[in-house]
Specification:
about 375 residues; mainly alpha; hpI Integrase, Chain A; 3-stranded antiparallel β-sheet; 14 helices
Length: about 375
């Protein structure tokens, strides 16, 4: 039975095309669906391997044309679309769903991941020719090869972005990344260094490097936030640090913290105060960057890590990174009784759910306290 707007296209050798004595189809036909775009005065056509897929596309495309979301223009190949996407990121015309400009690190990771894992396979494929089933098979292949689930998610991210960009500009009517089934990421519990290890690690590093490591361990700032911290935001009188920006070493630019929640106030503990005071005296500065070699030039975090690694190896200590120090801060705060809501603010997490996902196993007494509360409630209920 014929469907309006869908053309069955047989192979040239198919018996159904042999004239008056045509027989039944003996090929694998394709199905070309089309919709009319009055705005462009042209038909938009797509070919599919099944009639069902052609019908589904035609319904979606018809609605997209009426809403002005699909135009009768040829979709670019993925390489060209990615180049346009990156240019739009740079120009600020393509933004996050929260309408914020993309951070330089996100832009760079998008391009690097695409070139590394996607371009060779799909770079010359037109956007409208890449379907959901093909991408699901790609994901399944990566999963079967025991690729880390986080790596798989990162591989698909550039595709999600480019199809969101293309769909908003009417280049495609369907996003084939929508509904992809990705392997579940493991929820490995983070095991930070112990407080005793932290004291030994701090004692082993060079005197000049000790303040930045102490701030990482005792204030929980991210690496970029440490590098961007300036003296006007060290409020010794109130005993707080104001986190307002971050530094990206690769692009050499200052910008906002990781998210809007990254803009925060963190208490300066009594243990951290001497390190900051001594550092101010040693550097002779109370303006500009706190940890930079000059007031305007940020610290080289790679050199900092190398110097620390050498010192810790000589002392027989296991290395840590600035990021691991952030987890140490969280674990010590929990052990000291800081509640989860306060810790969420100090860490700059987007929600308390993130804090519990990362550090919930460190909160003491969760199970026994919950059981005791439930027992008290049940005793009241059953006593009635």
């Amino acid at each position: 039975m014929a469907d309006e707007g869908i053309e069955v296209r047989h192979e040239k050798s198919c018996r159904s095309l042999s004239g008056a004595g045509a027989g039944r189809c003996n090929c694998d036909p394709t199905y070309r669906a089309s919709v009319w775009s009055a705005r462009d005065g042209k038909r938009i056509r797509r070919s599919f391997s099944s009639r069902a897929a052609a019908k589904a596309w035609r319904q979606d495309a018809g609605r997209a044309v009426r809403r002005g979301e699909l135009r009768a223009t040829a979709a670019p190949v993925l390489d060209d679309a990615m180049a346009q996407l990156l240019a739009a990121m740079d120009a600020g015309t393509f933004r996050t769903r929260g309408r914020r400009p993309f951070k330089p690190t996100t832009r760079r990771a998008t391009e690097q991941t695409y070139r590394l894992r996607v371009a060779e396979r799909y770079g010359r494929v037109r956007l409208d020719k890449l379907d959901h089933l093909e991408l699901q098979e790609f994901v399944d292949e990566l999963d079967a090869a025991e690729t880390n689930p986080s790596t798989i998610e990162g591989t698909i991210l550039p595709l999600r972005l480019v199809y969101r960009w293309a769909h908003a500009r009417g280049l495609v009517s369907v996003d084939p990344t929508d509904g992809l089934e990705l392997p579940e990421k493991s929820s490995r519990q983070r095991v930070p260094p112990s407080p005793q290890d932290a004291a030994r690690l701090l004692a082993a590093v060079l005197d000049a490097d000790r303040p930045v490591w102490a701030t990482a361990m005792l204030a929980g700032l991210r690496r970029g936030e440490l590098l961007a911290l300036d003296w006007p935001n060290v409020d010794a009188a109130r005993g707080v640090l104001h986190v307002k920006r971050s530094y990206d070493p690769t692009s050499g630019t200052f910008g906002r913290p990781k998210s809007k929640h990254g803009i925060r106030t963190v208490p300066i503990t009594a243990a951290l105060t001497p390190y900051l005071r001594e550092h101010a005296l040693r550097s002779g500065r109370r303006t500009g960057l706190v940890f930079g070699p000059t007031a305007t030039r940020p610290l080289d975090s790679r050199r900092l890590q190398q110097r620390a690694d050498e010192a810790w190896a000589a002392a027989g200590l296991a290395r840590v990174t600035l990021h691991a120090c952030r987890h140490l801060y969280a674990s010590m705060s929990i052990a000291a009784g800081v509640n989860a809501h306060a810790l969420c603010r100090y860490m700059g997490h987007s929600s308390i759910a993130v804090t519990f996902d990362l550090y919930g196993h460190l909160f003491p007494g969760n199970e026994s306290e919950a059981a005791a509360r439930l027992d008290r409630y049940l005793a009241q209920v059953f006593a009635r």
